[in-house]
Amino acid sequence: MEDIQVWGKEDSGMFSVSAAYECLTKHSADPQSEVYNILWKTKAFPNVLMTAWRALRGRMPTRQCLSRRGVSMNSMLCPMCQLEEESSQHIFLLCKYAQRVWSECFKWVGTSTVQHNDLKMHFLNFYLFQATNKQNLIWKGVWVNVIRCIWDQRNLIVFQQGVVDADEIFQKAQLKSWLWLKHRTHSFNYSFSDWVLNQSSVLEVLSNKQAVVFIPWMMQRQKYGLMHSNLGFVGEV
Question: What angle do CA 43, 152, 231 make, to 5 degrees?
Answer without folding.
Answer: 40
